[in-house]
Design brief:
Blueprint (H helix, E strand, L loop, with lengths): L16 H4 L5 E4 L2 E4 L2 E6 L3 E6 L3 E6 L4 E6 L7 E8 L3 E7 L4 E5 L12 E5 L7 E6 L5 E6 L3 E8 L4 E9 L4 E7 L2 E6 L3 E5 L4 E5 L6
Antiparallel strand pairs: 1-2, 3-4, 4-5, 5-6, 7-8, 8-9, 9-10, 11-12, 12-13, 13-14, 15-16, 16-17, 17-18
């Protein structure tokens, strides 16, 4: 008996004008007009997060069709990476060109969820551009990598409002990708890919030849 083919859903791909129109193309700073470039992007079922060259994070809620803005205090610098996570609370991690990393715990209208926007800052371990971010599924661990090869582990206690960070690995080339699952951090650099076992603090390289 022939198996029944699953139904095919056709989707149309088109520019998200409703999203792009909510982000300014220029801002005025004193007497200068500054062009706004979109520099980072992440999506999930609830949000679309867009980083910009002016240090502003634009967060579009898909359910409410609302755009919200978040920024770093102090100087205006380009956002280089954003990473969303939906667990018990909605979280977004943001990295910048100078190595600043912040976590925003978003407000939720659902019962028992977070009712006040909170921000956690990763202490100044990174000194160069953030190139990768990875969450643990429960939102208690965040890993950040930069273009100098440093990887920082941040332990978050959302209930207590605490973020403790430490350098866990340093590679000789830029970090290009991070992914975390089951106490194992997958790390890709410009030269190699490795598995970092966070409990044992040990490294297992994938393959033997360096990348060309």
């Amino acid at each position: 008996m022939a198996s029944v083919a699953s139904p095919v859903t056709f989707k149309e791909f088109c520019p998200l004008y409703y999203l792009l129109n909510a982000i300014p193309t220029k801002i005025q700073k004193g007497f200068r007009s500054i062009v706004v470039y979109l520099t980072a992007l992440d999506t999930n079922g609830d949000y679309i997060a867009v980083g910009s060259s002016i240090g502003m994070l634009y967060l579009y809620c898909r359910h409410l069709n609302q755009m919200k803005k978040y920024n770093f205090e102090g100087r205006c610098e380009s956002i280089t990476f954003v990473k969303l996570l939906s667990c018990f609370d909605d979280l977004v991690a943001v990295g910048t060109a100078s190595g600043r990393v912040a976590v925003f715990q978003l407000v939720s209208s659902l019962p028992g969820r977070n009712k006040q926007l909170r921000r956690f800052d990763v202490a100044g371990i990174h000194k160069s551009s953030i190139t990768a971010l990875a969450w643990s599924p429960n939102g208690m661990k965040l890993f950040s990598g930069d273009d100098k090869g440093k990887i920082v582990y941040s332990a978050l206690d959302l209930d207590q409002g605490i973020c403790n960070s430490s350098l866990v690995l340093e590679e000789p080339s830029s970090i290009v990708q991070l992914d975390y699952n089951q106490k194992v951090l997958l790390v890709s650099t410009l030269q190699r890919t490795l598995l970092f076992y966070t409990e044992e603090k040990s490294v297992n390289q994938v393959g033997t030849q360096p990348r060309k």
